[in-house]
Design goal:
This protein has 179 residues and is mainly α. The chain has eight helices and two strands; from the N terminus they run E-E-H-H-H-H-H-H-H-H.
Length: 179
């Protein structure tokens, strides 16, 4: 469904928004229009997640050169999974309403233990979080690069995570790097 929120065509993935969802989206749009910050409160179970995703994605689609990112933070992996499920439903609605929503990207980031691909860290007896920190902390990286022999070209000093180092040094906008 397409909902008009103050001259903005908003894709909404359910049959009809609740009145409080419409008010939430209007308030959010006014804050974005003003270029400011907002604190908008709604009770549990009233559709905050779908409201913010619907309004923000439509706003970003309308003004892609001005607004490019929405960072949506959650406290738990379960909440993050709910946000990703709502985003998936919204993207399907966007595709049905106007074609391909490919200009939008939704990524869920979790704890290191959910993201790590380095076998050494995954099987570390101290745990993934500790092992990852020992391979990627700024002071560890700084020390490793300072101790390398500057007479030889060293791609990645030993004792650092090769995946993290390749990602942090990548000059392109590629977010998926080869192993």
């Amino acid at each position: 469904m397409i909902v008009d929120i103050e001259d903005l065509a908003v894709n909404f993935p359910y049959r009809e928004p609740y009145p409080e969802q419409l008010q939430y989206m209007r308030s959010l749009k006014r804050a974005l229009d003003a270029g400011g910050h907002a604190v908008i409160e709604m009770p549990s179970g009233t559709g905050k997640t779908v409201s913010i995703l619907s309004l923000a994605s439509s706003y970003i689609s309308r003004w892609p050169l001005v607004y490019r990112k929405l960072v949506y933070c959650t406290r738990t992996v379960e909440e993050m999974e709910k946000v990703l499920a709502e985003a998936k439903r919204l993207f399907a609605t966007m595709q049905a309403n106007r074609g391909d929503p490919s200009e939008l990207l939704c990524v869920g980031l979790a704890a290191r233990s959910h993201l790590c691909v380095l076998e050494e860290a995954l099987h570390n007896p101290r745990g993934v979080e500790s092992a990852c920190r020992a391979l990627t902390a700024s002071w560890v990286r700084e020390r490793a690069y300072q101790s390398t022999d500057h007479g030889h070209q060293v791609d990645i000093p030993p004792g650092l995570c090769p995946f993290y180092e390749r990602f942090s040094s990548a000059a392109s906008q590629n977010f998926i790097l080869p192993a």
